[in-house]
Write a structure and sequence with these properties.
Blueprint lengths: L1 E2 L15 H14 L3 E4 L11 H17 L5 E4 L3 E2 L4 H6 L11 E5 L7 H12 L3 E5 L5 H5 L5 H6 L2 E5 H5 L5 H11 L5 E3 L13 H11 L1 H6 L3 H7 L5
Parallel strand pairs: 1-2, 2-3, 4-5, 5-6, 6-7, 7-8
Length: 237
């Protein structure tokens, strides 16, 4: 499996606290069947990292993984927050795509989603990129009105839901919305959005199995294998 959303880089944002936790997260991912993981630190609100800095830190992590004989390949990325300065940050390479692909992991505000949010996403399309919406099932306006994201889906945007949204309690709002999105065919990818080894853990298999109850095993497997692999290889989804 391939995990396109994680905060495995140590001491950067609200993710791994130190290399020890990074390695522990990697071991958990591998034990669950993950072979590749994108490191996607928040591009604002924490330590700002230029694209090349992310690449450098990913190489450091990979060196430690190889030394510890942990068979996980880590790739660079950002979780790109959609706000007034996003396009400026992008032009200055303070936000970057998933690996070396045309795909951008984009995070809307948790509290508002409007035509300006869509305008940023459409500008990425105009530049030849494909946005991947990170965890829209957790975004309050989208929870209340799924049709908000229909314009960008019609343009070709992808949707990534968080594994924990499917494995949480049945009354959890994000789980209710994620399951509805699955039923409506609005989900392309399941990712961990892993931050640590405790309450925001790595792992995709349990969520994949939950998704399979709704969309079937073939499509659920695609959400953690062939579709993220296309992103990794910069192929058309």
């Amino acid at each position: 499996m391939i995990d396109i959303h994680s905060h495995i880089l140590p001491d950067v944002d609200d993710g791994a606290l130190g290399m020890t936790e990074t390695l522990a997260m990697a071991r958990m991912s591998v034990a669950d069947g993950v072979t590749h993981m994108f490191a996607t630190p928040h591009h604002i609100h924490f330590t700002p990292l230029h694209r090349q800095e992310v690449i450098g830190r990913v190489k450091q992590v990979q060196t430690q993984l190889d030394a510890a004989h942990i068979p996980l390949t880590v790739l660079p990325g950002h979780e790109v927050r959609l706000y007034a300065g996003t396009l400026h940050d992008w032009e200055n390479q303070m936000a970057g795509p998933l690996g070396y692909s045309r795909y951008i992991l984009t995070e809307p505000s948790f509290y508002h989603y409007d035509r300006y949010t869509n305008a940023i996403l459409f500008e990425f399309f105009n530049q030849g990129y494909t946005p991947v919406l990170a965890h829209p099932e957790r975004i309050i306006p989208i929870q209340q009105k799924l049709s908000l994201i229909e314009p960008v889906l019609a343009r070709g945007a992808l949707v990534q839901i968080t594994a924990n949204s499917l494995t949480n309690r049945p009354t959890y709002a994000a789980r209710i919305v994620a399951e509805e999105m699955l039923r409506q065919g609005m989900v392309h990818i399941i990712a961990s959005d892993a931050h640590n080894t405790s309450y925001r853990r790595p792992g995709l298999s349990m969520a994949r199995d939950r998704a399979a109850r709704i969309v079937g095993e073939k499509q659920a497997n695609a959400m953690v294998t062939t579709i993220p692999k296309a992103i990794l290889n910069d192929e058309l989804v």
